[in-house]
Amino acid sequence: xxxxxxxxxxxxxxxxxxxxxxxxxxxxxxxxxxxxxxxxxxxxxxxxxxxxxxxxxxxxxxxxxxxxxxxxxxxxxxxxxxxxxxxxxxxxxxxxxxxxxxxxxxxxxxxxxxxxxxxxxxxxxxxxxxxxxxxxxxxxxxxxxxxxxxxxxxxxxxxxxxxxxxxxxxxxxxxxxxxxxxxxxxxxxxxxxxxxxxxxxxxxxxxxxxxxxxxxxxxxxxxxxxxxxxxxxxxxxxxxxxxxxxxxxxxxxxxxxxxxxxxxxxxxxxxxxxxxxxxxxxxxxxxxxxxxxxxxxxxxxxxxxxxxxxxxxxxxxxxxxxxxxxxxxxxxxxxxxxxxxxxxxxxxxxxxxxxxxxxxxxxxxxxxxxxxxxxx
Length: 376
Hints:
The protein has a single domain, classed as TIM Barrel (Alpha-Beta Barrel), CATH 3.20.20.70. The protein has 13 helices and 14 strands. The protein has helices at about 35-50, 80-90, 110-115, 140-155, 170-175, 190-210, 230-245, 280-285, 300-310, 320-325, 330-335, 350, 365-375; strands at about 10, 15, 20, 55, 60, 75, 95-105, 120, 135, 160-165, 215-220, 250-255, 295, 315-320. The longest helix has 20 residues, at about 140-155.
């Protein structure tokens, strides 16, 4: 597994290995969206666990971009910068680089959470929630571009090593790219180029604010399971466009909320959990671009991780659920224990997100969970 523990660089930022903690919803912010005590504890555990790059849970860039899930983080105002700087300083003690993922939830939120009708590129019903969003105006789009760029600026000022733009899983930017959710006929819809335009504008404006040397990463859904959704062939083209824009690393994911579980790799046949289920798209993309590629999606076996890197299908192995279950997985692999992660992809961690903080719930009662939390 020596290839997993090579030192690499994303721009001038050196990573001590090729193992990445992928972003998720954590539900550990204070009521104002600032990082709470539990989040400090979580990131310290992950930093001690040995990953090379820790990507935070998504933080909203706009008041109307808040998740309906329990206590989403925020990066929508300057007064949050100081608290995040404290978080960065603590993580850095363990030699880990840290990036913040910034997002807007778009149509995947609720009116009573944000106090207004959710926005989207087009007024298309979200069948998973029953939400009918409002089609965005030109002014809305320009505001969102600026909100993301200002979020990137705050991330840099807080001392993070990089910022990651969230363009996956049906959230606002993802919904611009997906043909099912973007049915516009103006410059923001129709062709692939037009549907990707908002991402291009966000990158360009963010680059102005953070400078040429600061790493800007992106996570995107390369395909989904909707009837009129994004297919892998077009998803690879979208990834090429992102590389040409100047993004410094591209994380390949999949799916939107209402497509039946492709984000989580849910196996419709009910057999064993899928392993590295986005690898086929990452492989196609990696062979067309010179930008580093992160692969996320059900990767729990260290032997598979090593093979992915050795084959050149991806440069980095990005994990979420495996590290929820076992935060010290990277350290264990480095020490020579190549047993698969204890995560069985039961997805209880995801299913509890709307109402509870992030936790591995498999095989535990709520009483067990409370006892563990008191011991941390």
